[in-house]
Design a protein that fits this description.
By secondary structure, the chain is mostly helical. Helices cover about 75% and strands about 0% of the residues. Helix 22 runs parallel beside helix 24.
């Protein structure tokens, strides 16, 4: 709904504005949209001439808004100068509180946070005492409040305008301000429905209907979502590119949220709108379609779309993310590199820098990965912190650093390192249930895949095998996880007594051919090969493979697991001293880990 602000100015073509009215309204909208420099210019031009006595209230609003913008732009000297002007001017009593709002901002800038809170509270109390005296100034006050992020005040002002003159534009602006104020979904929906009942123009009705869809979804009114979607399609002007983009953006969000809530038919309805209406030659619309295909694990469809798509800068992130998910980390780094220095857009999470750091680790470019962490961790502090914690456990075998970075967060790496498999299972189930907007089939496939890994580590090979086989049925286009699931399933079959060493070797070669850039995938396959040969009781061959794998394995936890398997193989060959030496090496690699605990029983 916030994006609709750009259309709001068009609602006032029939209204007469004075110089200062126009400055307050246009400046407010531009400031709200982040165009602070343009808003500042408009306000400064309007304030060049001294105000007449009748213009003092509007002059006060314009000067106050300009002061607010100067602070946002870090022009503290100019802001202080404007504030001094406001203090010297005798404003009407109902508007005096606005000067105190700026006083609070200036106090906060000086680090006087408690003082700023007191001043702001006193300002609101002053307004409450004199708000009945505002008279005819509600319109200007409403737009001033909208532009200076005082959305509660804006909502209250538009409430008064609706009472005095219940026309569509006031209902519309009231619903917009109400949402921005952080009101409850039920209250916002009521204001949106009031705005729709006022029979606004078709393009405004369209945006209000889209917002009603999302609000009804939030409130669990699924029947209303379905009905509103039908009205949206009737109001959509397909020739308007901006309406198409807004519509497809909303449908993408609805499809993801509805999938998360397991509303199959409604989710499919929203998904079809994106897949069928999105124009693949329009970069923005193509990105919405790619988002849904990626959520579904339909990586082959993503690949086909990206092959045909133009080499446009706006698709760099999509190409980079696709490369990362399909086991091509070097390609991902190259595609994401131009985006790493930019601020992370909300639609692009994980951000390009975070993805490129993950990709560097997947490519075993350890120094590059750490450097990216140091350079870009300010962009997504929590994401980078969790990534660095995973590295502390699995790459460095440093549980103290891992725990200090995790704080109160969960981590699969920590659960694996410590052997807390039940907690790991709960973490995975919670993550797939709440953090991903994926269709349930693909989510179930991922859950089976991770359940297989957990049961595998617990030594329940038959149950692990069942989970891997179930995942293969549901992860149709996810070649990375499918390839690994086949490999791990063969390993379980070896532990269950089957001679599958040659099949496992063939799958390992296949993964190497499929993912030549993904050195982590290849290293995992080498580790799995050692495990498979040990399970098949081919101890000497397993030792040979383990020695070769250790030469190319930089990760502490994987090196410790290889050492453990070497110890088991030496035991199988009755070479007890060499076995004990292998087990002892684990204790320095991964102290305090599950592998460390198991090795101490062997020394």
């Amino acid at each position: 709904m916030e994006l609709i602000g750009a259309f709001a100015l068009g609602y006032f073509g029939s209204l007469y504005w004075t110089r200062l009215q126009r400055a307050v309204v246009e400046g407010g909208f531009l400031a709200h949209q982040g165009h602070n420099a343009r808003a500042r210019h408009i306000l400064k031009m309007a304030l060049v001439l001294p105000p007449r006595k009748s213009e003092i209230p509007l002059w006060g609003l314009a000067t106050n808004l300009l002061c607010y913008l100067e602070l946002k732009l870090n022009h503290e000297t100019e802001a202080q100068h404007l504030f001094s002007k406001l203090e010297r001017t005798q404003l009407p009593k109902p508007l005096n509180f606005l000067t105190d709002l700026r006083r609070a901002d200036l106090a906060a800038r000086s680090g006087l946070i408690s003082e700023a809170k007191k001043v702001r509270a006193a300002a609101r109390e002053l307004f409450d005492q004199h708000k009945q005296e505002v008279g005819s100034d509600w319109k200007s006050l409403a737009f001033f409040a909208y532009g200076s992020d005082e959305y509660d005040l804006a909502t209250y002002s538009f409430d008064r305008l609706v009472e005095k003159n219940p026309t569509p534009q006031w209902f519309y602006f009231r619903s917009l301000a109400c949402e921005l104020s952080g009101s409850s979904p039920a209250r916002i929906l009521q204001y949106v429905e009031d705005a729709l009942a006022a029979e606004p123009e078709r393009h405004i009705k369209f945006y209000l209907l889209l917002n009603a869809c999302e609000l009804n979804l939030t409130l669990g009114n699924f029947e209303a979502v379905s009905e509103t979607l039908k009205e949206c399609k009737l109001s959509l002007n397909l020739s308007s590119r901006s309406q198409r983009h807004f519509y497809l953006s909303t449908m993408t969000r609805l499809a993801r949220k509805l999938n998360c809530q397991d509303r199959g038919l409604l989710a499919l309805q929203a998904r079809c709108e994106v897949v069928e209406r999105a124009n693949d030659s329009d970069i923005i619309e193509l990105r919405y379609k790619l988002t849904l295909f990626r959520d579904e694990g339909s990586f082959d469809q993503c690949a086909r779309l990206l092959e045909k798509a133009p080499n446009h800068p706006n698709l760099r992130y999509a190409r980079g993310f696709h490369s990362y998910l399909t086991g091509r980390p070097f390609d991902a780094i190259k595609q994401l590199e131009p985006l790493c220095d930019r601020d992370v857009e909300p639609a692009f999470r994980p951000g390009p820098a975070l993805l490129s750091a993950r990709a560097a680790a997947e490519a075993f470019q350890w120094e590059d990965a750490v450097q990216r962490y140091e350079l870009f961790r300010h962009q997504e502090s929590r994401g980078f912190r969790l990534l660095r914690a995973d590295w502390a456990y699995l790459w460095e075998g440093n549980p103290e650093l891992g725990r200090s970075l995790l704080q109160d967060d969960c981590s699969s790496a920590r659960y694996l390192y410590e052997g807390n498999f039940e907690e790991w299972l709960g973490h995975i189930e919670g993550y797939l249930a709440t953090a991903n907007f994926r269709p349930k089939g693909y989510s179930r496939g991922l859950l089976h895949y991770y359940l297989g890994i957990i049961k595998h580590w617990q030594g329940d090979f038959r149950t692990a095998l069942e989970h891997y086989q179930n995942s293969l049925e549901l992860l149709e286009d996810d070649n990375v996880r499918r390839g690994q699931a086949v490999l791990f399933a063969l390993e379980c079959r070896a532990y269950l007594g089957e001679d599958v060493a040659l099949k496992h070797q063939a799958q390992q070669v296949r993964l190497g051919d499929l993912f030549p850039q993904a050195l982590a995938i290849q290293a995992d396959a080498r580790l799995s090969a050692v495990d498979c040969r040990y399970a098949c009781r081919q101890y000497q061959e397993a030792l040979n493979l383990a020695g070769s794998a250790l030469e190319r394995e930089p990760r502490a936890f994987a090196r410790a697991r290889l050492a453990e398997l070497r110890g088991y193989c030496f035991e199988g060959l009755d070479r007890q001293e060499e076995a004990r030496e292998a087990f002892r090496s684990i204790q320095t690699l991964v102290p305090g880990s599950l592998l460390d605990s198991r090795s101490r029983h062997k020394c």
